[in-house]
Amino acid sequence: MTTTDTTAIRALIERSQDAWNRGDGTAYGACFTADATDATYVGTIYHGGDEIGGAHQALFDSFLKGSRLWVEILEIRLYGSDTAVVVTRGESSKKEPKKLGKVATYTVIRDGEGRWLIAAVQKTQHKPIMEAISFKFKPATKPAAR
């Protein structure tokens, strides 16, 4: 992976975060491909940048009004020259969260114009107590340290 690719992919995630923080559904949806999939942590599945942006605008205008998106990129892995997987921790809230309680895995692609876009994202609520129980009773379920 080149530094240019990593920088561009980080910039994509930052653009989506900035659009969220402005409450701009159109700009948020523009970070996704026309056929993207957004699987939210509550289980809703949106398809395509337009639908993702429109649904998020409705959320920004109501339940998520004034919220901010906090994102920490944990890793970026390139597969070929035009596809990458980005793993993040994050949270959406109106004030800075004490911890980043959600995990999101993005599949990003480089389009025909050379722009990186989100093709899919899966968001999951981190359940640390359930995780600790699993690790205690079934140590083999604990992932290797990274």
Structure described in brief:
The chain has 146 residues and is α+β, with helices and mostly antiparallel strands. Helix content is 33%, strand content 36%. It starts with a helix and ends in a 9-residue tail after the last helix.
Helices and strands, with pairings:
Blueprint: H1 3-22, H2 25-29, E1 32-39, E2 45-47, H3 48-60, E3 68-79, E4 83-93, E5 102-110, E6 116-125, H4 128-137
Parallel strand pairs: 1-6
Antiparallel strand pairs: 1-2, 3-4, 4-5, 5-6
Description of the molecule:
By secondary structure, this protein is of the alpha+beta class. It has one domain: Nuclear Transport Factor 2, Chain: A, CATH 3.10.450. It has helices spanning 3-22, 25-29, 48-60, 128-137, and strands at 32-39, 45-47, 68-79, 83-93, 102-110, 116-125. A six-stranded mixed β-sheet has the order 2-1-6-5-4-3, covered by helices on one side. Strand 1 and strand 2 (45-47) form a beta hairpin. 21% of the residues are buried. The model has no long low-confidence stretch (mean pLDDT 94).
- Biggest sheet record: 6 strands, mixed
Q: Give the overall average pLDDT.
A: 94
- The termini sit apart by 19 Å
| Global Rg | 16 Å
CATH topology: Nuclear Transport Factor 2, Chain: A
Features:
single chain, 146 residues, alpha+beta, Nuclear Transport Factor 2, Chain: A, 4 helices, 6 strands
